[in-house]
Specification:
heterodimer, A: alpha/beta, five-stranded parallel beta sheet, two-stranded antiparallel sheet, 20 helices, B: 255 residues, alpha/beta, seven-stranded mixed beta sheet, 4 helices
């Protein structure tokens, strides 16, 4: 049982958004509990300092869902979040995204940077990221990845930040998101149509977002953001106002938001959760299938599978690219968040299976034949998430069949690393080959 | 961070006190794992499961070979009966469990060892497997199959209960002989045609010609009945409402 009530508080935020702000239908079931994937993953993104790509049709709440979650988790009034968003359009510039020269000082011969609200606040929302041309997407790579924002030889580093980016489906005005940027997103989720009846209610109740506005605190925060003081001091001043806004939320709406120290404590609790053996073995099995190539040593997007390969029934045969090292990290982060939220003492295979499709969907490049074979399948999810869910089902089936043997093979690997003189176990899966390679490396 | 008990390497370029930098054990969490001792060695279990599967698969292939003479597999009563007799012949010779039937359904689409999935013969064969299984209650998860299998539940006998998770194709539960057939999803046309007794429960919707030449038994539909067939005897319920026998409801009336 949790001691500090943070988990309950997080679920209350989920419920508040679900009941009052973002009307939706639950679309995933985890251990018998039903959730809406967009709110759940956004909540975890906010709490875990993650990066989320929200896709969907125009007007289905991609940006607003992120705004509500950020407002309640980071205690920022909605007006400040609106004023800190970056919108993706072809004319977007570094000066509007990151910072610009202080023209007054420049006239006096001094060089100084006026940082944008976007680069300063911990809540970062990029609206319609795929309307940014490819060349301009690279401008935000470093900031997105590490929270480092650089301009005119000056830099600010965000110690705490989360990123939400929205993307419409391809139309005349959209560009593709460059692969290095896509890979930096931990999860991709769809903001879905809530159904005709709930949609009708949304139409009736137009101004539901005003409840998260607060003009006084918004002005104060804008004022602080403009201050010419060290960034670290700005952060602590902002926190004071944010805490006051948090108290207002509690008094008026009855919903408790999180202060900075609460969020730090939650993250520490999440970090302490480890994967159990099945969760670990299953994740390794999936990673092996997404990176293995018997002929060429590993998957590479420029190399195609050979005919007559022994491993034709595994995912490696169906995909073009190799899983990046960010994938296991995203899986672990979100599974930790989910296990914490569900009050479990460790991460089990159900948490892993629930988050994997969302961490995988945007990162896999499927072969054309797989896409054409499955594009007309009956489904509820957008195509990339559907394909990722199907992949998880297939690997689960394989894991069910050989979990004990697989764990045994990994245990043998551990014993060899501890100095034991054992032979690696044989088996019909790329993971056995990977274990053998590690053992051989160790022995050589 | 785990330190290796093995002696340091001779040619290491790292200073001796930094040797542990390269000894990270990527399998550390599995160091205490001990695989439970199975009653039978794993390979034997796999082998025996594989052997059963091979025999089931061979029976299906034989059925296909015999039915291939027909060139186009037409669903006619004679064809079905003939196919069922062939299926019975092979099924009787195999000792299998309900789990093996489910594995076979999955293998129909997911392995290349089974050459064709023809929904008609596949359905006849699966029905024979269900009818001759030792278990009285069988659950088949077909929701992950892309093809809807026809003729599921053919001649399901009294005392048997077959539950299907997912949708089924045409001719579901035809010639039912007193068994109980539950479909968690939708079912297509000619469901329950010629059934003599028993119960068919469809949780969602059902197609045209429902209960054509039905001689007895009951069909319960949780969703919509798209059209009724020419029913001789028996009852059809749509969302708990009796639609046959009932007010004038012309066969295959689209409403």
């Amino acid at each position: 049982m949790e001691k500090n009530g943070y988990r309950k508080q997080a679920m209350e935020i989920y419920q508040f958004i679900s009941d009052h702000l973002y009307f939706n239908r639950p679309d995933i079931e985890i251990k018998g509990e039903r959730f809406n994937s967009a709110i759940l993953l956004s909540l975890l993104t906010g709490l875990k300092k993650g990066k989320e790509l929200i896709i969907g049709e125009p007007g289905l709440g991609k940006t607003t869902s992120a705004e509500y979650v950020c407002s309640l988790i980071y205690q920022f009034p909605l007006g400040v979040i609106w004023g800190s968003e970056v919108s993706g359009h072809p004319e977007q510039t570094e000066e509007k995204i990151i910072g610009r020269p202080d023209l007054g000082r420049l006239n006096r011969g001094e060089e100084d940077v006026v940082w944008t609200n976007f680069s300063q606040i911990p809540v970062k929302i990029v609206d319609e990221i795929n309307r940014l041309p490819e060349t301009k997407q690279s401008m935000i790579l470093d900031g997105v990845d590490r929270g480092n924002w650089e301009y005119l030889n000056e830099m600010i580093i965000n110690e705490e930040y989360c990123l939400f980016a929205t993307a419409n489906y391809q139309d005349g005005g959209t560009n593709t998101i460059i692969a290095p940027l896509v890979d930096r997103f931990d999860v991709m989720v769809e903001s879905r149509y809530p159904g005709a009846n709930l949609s009708f209610l949304i139409g009736k109740d137009k101004r539901k977002d005003h409840i998260l506005r607060h003009s006084k605190y918004e002005k104060e925060l804008y004022h602080i953001l403009k201050y010419k003081i060290a960034y670290e001091r700005k952060i602590s001043k902002m926190e004071e106002v944010c805490n006051a806004y948090g108290e207002y939320l509690d008094e008026v709406l009855g919903v408790k938001s999180f202060q900075r120290q609460d969020r730090d404590q939650i993250r520490a609790e999440m970090e302490s959760l480890e994967l159990d053996l099945d969760a670990s073995a299953f994740t390794r099995m999936l990673l092996a299938e997404l990176s293995f190539c018997e002929r060429y040593g590993q998957k590479r997007v420029v190399e195609n599978c050979e005919e007559g390969c022994h491993y034709t029934e595994y995912l490696c045969r169906q995909i073009k690219n190799c899983a990046s090292n960010r994938l296991p990290s995203s899986i672990k982060q979100y599974a930790q968040g989910l296990a914490w939220l569900m009050e479990d003492s460790e991460i089990d295979i159900e948490h892993i299976k629930a988050v994997i499709p969302y961490t995988l969907a945007h990162r896999i490049q499927w072969k054309d034949e797989v896409l054409s074979q499955k594009e007309r399948s009956k489904r509820d999810d957008p195509f990339p998430i559907f394909l990722a869910k199907e992949a998880v089902k297939t690997v689960s089936q394989r894991y069910r069949e050989q979990s004990e043997h697989l764990k045994d093979a990994l245990a043998v690997g551990s014993k060899v690393f501890q100095g034991g003189d054992l032979e690696p176990l044989e088996g019909d899966h790329p993971l056995y080959v990977e274990v053998k390679k590690d053992i051989d490396t160790r022995r050589s | 961070m785990m330190k290796s008990p093995t002696p340091p390497k001779k040619s290491s370029i790292l200073p001796p006190d930094k040797e542990s930098w390269i000894t990270k054990n990527p399998f550390e969490e599995f160091k205490t794992f001990a695989a439970p001792t199975p009653d039978l060695p794993l390979d034997q279990i796999v082998q025996s499961t594989e052997a059963v599967m091979d025999r089931i698969r061979r029976g299906y292939e034989k059925l296909l070979e015999e039915e291939a003479k027909e060139l186009v597999w037409m669903v006619q009563y004679n064809t079905i009966i003939k196919a069922y007799e062939v299926a019975e012949k092979y099924v009787r010779e195999v000792d299998y469990t309900a789990e093996d039937i489910e594995d076979f359904c999955f293998a129909l689409e997911n392995t290349q060892r089974i050459p064709y999935l023809i929904p008609g013969p596949a359905g006849v064969y699966i029905s024979a497997l269900c009818n001759y299984a030792m278990e009285e209650e069988i659950v088949l998860k077909l929701s992950e199959l892309k093809t809807e299998i026809n003729l599921i539940g053919f001649r399901l006998s009294k005392g048997k209960r077959l539950m299907i998770e997912g949708d089924t194709g045409d001719f579901t539960g035809i010639g039912l002989e007193g068994g109980e057939l539950v479909i968690e999803g939708n079912s297509k046309n000619w469901t329950g045609a010629g059934m003599r007794g028993g119960k068919i429960l469809i949780k969602k919707n059902i197609g045209l010609h429902t209960g054509e030449w039905m001689m007895g038994g009951e069909i319960y539909v949780g969703g919509r009945v798209r059209g009724l067939g020419n029913i001789v005897e028996g009852k059809v319920y749509e969302r708990d409402k009796l639609v046959y026998p009932g007010k004038v409801r012309y066969p295959n009336l689209y409403y």
